[in-house]
Structure formats: structure tokens, C-alpha cells
Amino acid sequence: MNMPRLNxxxxxxxxxxxxxxxxxxxxxxxxxxxxxxxxxxxxxxxLMKEMKPLAKPLHVKICIFDILGKSGPVYSxxxxxxxxxxxxxxxxxxxxxxxxxxxxxxxxxxQCEAVGLTTLRARMFNNFIGSFDAVxxxxxxxxxxxxxxxxxxxxxxxPLSISGKYQVVGMAPLxxxxxxxxxxxxxxxxxxxxxxxxxxxWDRSQAKMIQQLGAQPVPSDITNFAQKFxxxxxxxxxxxxxxxxxxxxxxxxxxxxxxxKMPLINVTxxxxxxxxxxxxxxxxxxxxxxxxxxxxxTYVDQAIATIRNIEKQVPSKYWMDVAPVDQEKYNIMMxxxxxxxxxxGVYDPKMMxxxxxxxxxxxxxxxxxxxxxxx
Length: 375
Fold this sequence. Notes:
Blueprint: H1 14-22, H2 39-48, E1 58-65, H3 73-85, E2 90-97, H4 100-108, E3 114-118, H5 119-122, H6 127-130, H7 141-153, E4 162-163, E5 166-181, E6 196-200, H8 204-212, E7 216-220, H9 225-230, E8 236-240, H10 249-253, E9 258-274, H11 275-281, H12 285-297, H13 300-312, E10 319-320, H14 324-343, H15 349-362
Parallel strand pairs: 1-2, 1-3, 6-7, 9-10
Antiparallel strand pairs: 3-9, 4-5, 5-8, 5-9
Helix pairs in contact: 7-12, 7-15
């Protein structure tokens, strides 16, 4: 069965999407189209108009997660970015990792000054922003766009991006994670009971929610969850559409499976830095970071458009509608999960308040907007 491939060949806003996806595991470097020459350079030239080079050279190390290590496409892209960084008198040493958890731990122990992660994983460095991808909190891409504008474009939220010595300096949408089942008869919460569900082994929120459904969480990670679904080890996974073809999730769906048109979470990626040395050597660090954050927001619309196009490539036969009555049931279930996880300290209450305000701004007639929950 020939499935469409994800086109990572520019525009630039696709880089974060491709970096996250290709790091997941099954796509091979030779399958990925090359970026047009000069694409990264043309974008960095635009930023040069807003920001002058550093007064003196700064040497930093950045942890790069790529399942193929130095031979992988993510590392290759990072090399191009590192070359462009020299325009700002910033000299980067890239440290490749084939495992996201190892990359995160290496960053935590000071082997590098920056790292790129899924926002779920970034929770270990900043619980406020790490709660951005809370279950059911952002039900559409319009919600994601507004929330990112509040997070990355507002100077009021800037201090919240800093947690001790760590700071989330950038975020990017990666797509809604949809529930995929290997049997369409699993069409209700009740019928999920007893089924095996792949959950990230480092994320307590996922396992807790699955257990509440009466289903069986199966510890997994980004590099093997698709394999478990495709081999029948688990019955249910949640993943963005951009993972569908490269990770061959259609194999797990088989002839009886389906994908529910209901975002479980909206996945984002985050770039995290350790401010310890940087704020000493870059006096105007915060001013520079604020400009970079605002500049990054100019690509959100294009990133979301790219995600929508990828979702359209998934064959229509797999998509399953959720009945309005069931949708409301799921919304309540996810809200209850957020409330419990916030109470347990997994989610940050300030972020839950911010995300509720986004939902009520876009849908003021929603039932939750007349309550004090998540405020």
C-alpha cells in the first residue's frame, strides 16, 4: 500500500514539524527531500533586521534529538541553522542523541545550554508551559493559535516561561493527536474498558487517564509506540496525522480500524535553554528572546496550514465522526481529568486558567464558561 509521504522540503515552518516526526523513528534519511538552498538563510536575514549580532563571540552546546544521530535529517537541519547562527556571533556545537529522554537528561545535567523537546517532555523544566498540551484543553487549531499568541507574544506571560534556571524560548504546533483504534467497534468509553493503550512511560497524566477509563496503559515511548500498535501489542494509540504515513500506522488500523475526529490533545514542541551562563554573557538576553518569540509567531498560520494539509492526506475511509452526545461526554471526561491532574500537581493551575479563557473567548456559550472550574 503506497501512502503519501510528508514533504519536509520547506517552507521553513515545516522544519519543527519534520524534526519532531523524523525523530520518532521509522522514516529513513534518504526518504526526506532536501530543503531548497538558502531557505534558512533567507529567513535568518529577516531576523537580522530586528536584532544585531552579539558584541562578542558566544560558544554554546545544543542537544539535538535525531533517531539516526549525525546521519539523520534533523541533525542535518541543525547544522544549517548553526551555520546561520554565526551571523549573530553565536557559535554552536551540536550534540546528537537518538533518544529524547537521554537528550533531556543530558540537558538537565549541564552537557548543553539548549534542547528541543515535545512540550509534554519540557514539563520537567517548566511545569507552566509544560501544561500547555493538557488533555482536551485546546480543541481546535484556532484555540492553539490564540493560546500561542498569548504565550509567545505577550510580555505579561514572558516571566512565566522562566522556571529557575530554565526557560522555554519558543513553541511550535505539531498537530492534534487523534485516537486511533484497531477495531471500529471500540466506539465508546465503555468499550475501551480492558483494551490496551500505548502511553508515554514518562507522562503520569496519560497513564492516569487511561486507568480511569478502565483500560490498560502500556508503557511506551516515541520510538516504539507505533511499532506496538502496528504489531497488535496495543489496541489504541493517540498520534498526530503527520505520523500516519511515515510510521505506517495504517498497518495497525488494518481493515477494521479507524481514527476519531476528536483531538485528544494538541501537540506542540518547545525549545528550552539554561539561562545560567547565557544571561551573564548576553546582557540584553531577555530583549533578544522576546523579539525571537514574536518573530516565531509569524509562522504559526503557515505551520497550521501545513498540518491541515497533512491531515487531508490521510485516506477518508479511516476517519470516524463522534456523535454530539458522545463528544459532550468526552469533553466532560477530559475536563474532569484536567481538574484531577491539576489537583495532583501534574498540570499548572495558572495554565489551566489561561487555556480556559482561550476556550471561553472563542466559545463564550460553552457550559464551562458559567462555572468557576479551572479558574
